[in-house]
Write a structure and sequence with these properties.
By secondary structure, the chain is mainly beta. It has strands at about 5, 20-25, 25-30, 35-45, 50-55, 70-75, 80-90, 95-105, 115-125, 140-145, 150-155.
Length: about 160
């Protein structure tokens, strides 16, 4: 997918009057109706939060029948950068969390330049108790396969 998007869509997820181009949409799709959104966040792996527009059925009439949530970076993503997306929602089936990491390829920030590639995930977690609205921080663990090769694992 491209690093940026000109926003030529109707209805547009970009607020009226907002500058374009924006970053390409990051989304998660859930198997049950989203009742509440607890966290929608995009960060560079160095920890810097990426300002985004958040769109979902609770704040966008065009998505009223959708079980998807969307993060739209306010500016094009940086080339050759790694990002981490975290989305925590409450659905009719309980709490659901989606976390994944992706890296953009090299190139410029002009519309259509560069690409983004998912590295891992999404890692899905269903949370069963209402008081667990804040997930623990994600960490990667390394394990060895039976053949002795290293495998990175994102625990669920």
């Amino acid at each position: 997918m491209p690093l940026s998007w000109p926003g030529l869509e109707s209805p547009s997820p970009i607020p009226a009057g907002a500058p374009t181009p924006v970053g390409y949409t990051v989304s998660a799709h859930f198997p049950a109706e989203v009742k509440r959104v607890h966290r929608m966040q995009l960060r560079e792996v160095d920890g810097a939060e990426v300002p985004c527009y958040a769109r979902h059925r609770l704040n966008d009439e065009a998505l009223r029948h959708s079980n998807s949530v969307f993060l739209l970076p306010r500016e094009p993503l940086r080339p050759a950068a790694t990002y981490r997306a975290t989305i925590l929602v409450e659905t009719t089936d309980g709490f659901r969390e989606a976390r994944w990491t992706f890296t953009t390829t090299g190139g410029s920030r002009r519309p259509g330049a560069g690409m983004a590639t998912a590295l891992a995930g999404p890692a899905w977690r269903q949370r069963g108790r209402a008081q667990e609205t804040t997930p623990p921080p994600a960490k990667r663990e390394a394990t060895l396969t039976p053949g002795g090769r290293r495998r990175d694992v994102l625990p669920l």
